[in-house]
Amino acid sequence: MTTAQLRGNWLRYEILVKLVREEVSKVSVLRLAPYAKQVQFSMDICLVAVGVRSAYLIDALAPPDPVSVFSSLLKSLRLKSKVFGDTFLLTVPEHMQIFFVQRTALLEHTLLNFPSFVRLDKDLTVTSREPDSLRNILLDWSYEILWSGGLSYPLPDSLTQELLVPLAGILLDYPVAYVPISAQQNIFLPGEPLDVYEVAFNSPSADSSLSLGASEFVFIKFSCPRRVADKDSTLSPACLLMLLEHKFGPRLENIGASVSVRHYTETLDRVAL
């Protein structure tokens, strides 16, 4: 791709982000958020809309009645740009979680390329096969969720963390998804050395209007226990860094940006899932 093509792609992405930020500023409960949070949210959902990633778990903005607020926002975005026609909300009301999801990316990439699943038992058991109950949920996703143009679809309130946590890992394009061993488990990976990975992109222009005060925008962050990487070479830092670069490099080129992947290690008292 030529430099001119990359710049054109980036300009289109910038315009899309500005459109979202303008729509966010029209919503009274959202425009109260700091400007940087509004831009972060706008950039993240645009990455979903253009297919750089399959889904984004909303964490930058937290309005009251979030399902109604974000459904209304998505409806207005669809009226402004056809880019959002393939995007919908997947909601977990009981846990106050909302994902922006890109239907085509979900069908063509994510659901065909599952992560490695790490059970959070004492042995940190690794398997390529998703939990049986999770498989049933994925199979039961209706025609309406995967094929129609609806705005919002709720997941059953009965789902507990043994299913929600790995489901989030699938949706968020993580190569590694954790699987709690029970609904009651509340301490995860205490004192366990972790390989931490961040995927970011660089703006191709120093004067980009999307600056958040940093040279890079991190849009994916996940971890893998070092014990797991030592047992399974496909989850070693060398392999995962290569996988992430190959996966997101071409997608980011489509918005005129370049991928940056970082790896570091840390040990925490407990990990938040």
List the helices and strands and how they pair.
Elements: H1 3-25, H2 28-31, H3 35-49, E1 55-57, H4 66-80, E2 87-92, E3 97-102, H5 103-108, E4 116-119, E5 126-127, H6 132-140, H7 143-147, E6 152-154, H8 161-171, E7 176-179, E8 193-202, E9 216-225, H9 226-231, H10 237-253, E10 258-267
Parallel strand pairs: 2-6, 4-7
Antiparallel strand pairs: 1-3, 2-3, 4-5, 8-9, 8-10
Helix pairs in contact: 1-3, 1-4
Structure at a glance:
With 273 residues, this protein is an alpha+beta fold. The protein contains 10 helices and 10 strands.
Description:
The chain is of the alpha+beta class and 273 residues long. It is built from ten helices and ten strands. The chain has helices spanning 3-25, 28-31, 35-49, 66-80, 103-108, 132-140, 143-147, 161-171, 226-231, 237-253; strands spanning 55-57, 87-92, 97-102, 116-119, 126-127, 152-154, 176-179, 193-202, 216-225, 258-267. Helix 1 (3-25) crosses helix 4. The model has no long low-confidence stretch (mean pLDDT 90).
